[in-house]
Structure formats: C-alpha cells, structure tokens
Design a protein that fits this description.
Layout lengths: L1 E5 L3 H13 L4 E4 L17 E4 L5 H12 L5 H6 L1 E2 L6 E2 L15
Antiparallel strand pairs: 1-3, 2-3, 4-5
The structure holds zinc ion.
Amino acid sequence: MKQVYTASNIVDAQIFKDYLCGAGIEAIIKGEFLTGAVGELPTNTYPTVWVIDEDLFDKAKELLKIYEAPRPSDQVFHDSWTCPACGEWMESQFTECWRCGRQRI
Ligand SMILES: [Zn+2]
C-alpha cells in the first residue's frame, strides 16, 4: 500500500478516492477520524489517500496530475450561453447579448 495524495480536507480526500475507484484503482483514506477526537486537541493531520495495489501507484499519480490540474473556471463555462439571434458566445454574467441586445432565454 502506498500513499498517493495528501488532501486538504476529508471532502477533497473522498472526491479523489472516488476518482481513483472510478478508474479501477482501489484506494482508501487514512486519517479522516483523527481530527477533533474526544478529549484530544485538534491535530493538524490531513487525510491521506492510499493506493492498495502498489502496481497501480504510477497510474494513480497520473490521475492525481489530472485531478489537480487547474481547470478553466467551471462556473463560467457551466453557465455560459449562446445568443440565439446572432450566435455570439456569452459568459454567465451577461443577461442579454452585448452585441445585439437580445435577452437571455
Ligand atoms: Zn446577439
């Protein structure tokens, strides 16, 4: 078993673990229960993601690169729209076409 990723929080760890599992790589999360245990001071331990089959470690590292690669602003692309009148591509913040003034549908 080999550690492939140190997550910033448990949600992050979970997403990456699911990502690996989706690619057929079995992985587990360690350290998810270490923070805030009763009677203990909060630790600075971050959850880590471990690949069970070390033969798949390199592949997991490749997937990590993709996972961590900066993505073009998802929000902008998600909500972007195309003007039905003139075909101009609009970012999400526009509610009407800046070119021909057509309202967003
Ligand atoms: Zn337009």
